[in-house]
Amino acid sequence: MEIWKSISSHTSEYENPIKLLKGEIVKLGNRAPEENWKDWIWAENDKEQGGWVPIQIIENLESNKQGLILEDYSAKELNIDKDEIVVKVKSLNGWSWCRKIKDNDEGWIPDEVIDMQ
């Protein structure tokens, strides 16, 4: 278990993050333009809800316009303040899925806002 501390705050820009289930088919959009996050792609489900999804969990279908989701996924971002302590669960493409020590809330945060303790 890796313990990390936030070196700055992070607030999600997305109120209703996309949640996808293994086996779901999504419409694929553009990849993230930032070099550090190039392996994230915009995806929309059949409810027209969209969000950033790591390309590693998508199997491309129909000339890259659709994708099959290979594992359950949530795009929920974790809102944190500076100096909060989190446990890093997994890292992918410049982001980490973390759990706050103080309340067990979980979500994605950019790796650039946390530092190992």
UniProtKB/TrEMBL annotation:
Residues 7-60 form the SH3 domain. Keywords: SH3 domain. It comes from Paenimyroides ceti. InterPro entries: SH3-like_dom_sf, SH3_domain, UCP034961_SH3_2. This is SH3 domain-containing protein.
